[in-house]
Amino acid sequence: MLLEAAAAAWLYAQQASEDCFVFGEVSATEEEASGLQATGCPIKIERKGKLITLTSPKFIVEIAVPDMPGPQKFLYQWGQAEATIGNQVIHISYREVSGG
Asked: For a designed S-S bond to 63, which of 39, 52, 56, 76 qualifies (C-beta 3.0 to 4.6 A apart)?
């Protein structure tokens, strides 16, 4: 738990001075990310299966979409250790972009 908190703090410190949010709607059955958009940051959004991948110039964040019926609201603030999908809090994973 302490390691996760330290990692989240480090990732948060790497973000730009503006707040970066990724938001929209996702569905466990839809495999597209067209319902998501980012504000305040240059984030590339992709979806393969149930995995949402957010890529910045320095980091890749991955968020697994849980099995839930129908479309659910999605919210993630860059640098946080968790995203919200519907009424569930989802832990994220991240890594540095190779060679960057």
From this structure: 52
